[in-house]
Amino acid sequence: EVQLQASGGGLVQAGGSLRLSCAASGFAFDAYSIGWFRQGPGKGPEGVSCISSRNGSTYYADSVKGRFAFSRDNVKNTVLLQMNSLKPEDTAVYHCAARSGSSCPKGIYEYDYWGPGTLVTVSS
To answer: Measured between alpha carbons, how far is 16 from 76 in angstroms, rounded to an integer?
Structure first.
């Protein structure tokens, strides 16, 4: 059974930090690119970041560049999203998703698997 479990969300003040993690199981983790997506209140899914399976290359949405850092551990089958300098507009449910291969498409529906998200709330 494929599982992608995001955790680490919470309530933080603007300017603060959170670290999200995603634990994966049930598929060949090191052969999959992993993406983070978020969905804010009344909005559609937005791609936040992706890390490629091939060489660990990372990609970030313009809105989070310089503030978020994405890493993966292919031994522990986990990924970490370090989020710094958080803003109220970062408030959303964050989901991790997995796609076979090395590409990092922008749409969550181009990924093979995704799991329940974790809520991040940034207060002003």
So the answer is: 27
Q: How confident is the model at residue 55 (pLDDT cuts 50, 70, 90)?
A: confident
Strand partners, 83: 18, 68
Q: Please say if the pLDDT value at position 40 is more than 90.
A: yes
Q: Is the dihedral of CA 11, 39, 108, 15 positive or negative?
A: negative
3-state per-residue secondary structure call for 35-62: EEEEECCCCCCEEEEEECCCCCCEEECC
- Start-to-end Cα distance in the chain: 40
Residues 6+ away with beta carbon under 8 Å from 94 = 6, 9, 20, 36, 37, 38, 48, 81, 117, 118, 119, 120
With H, G, I as helix, E, B as strand and everything else as coil, classify residue 27. coil
Altogether, the residues listed in the chain come to a count of: 124
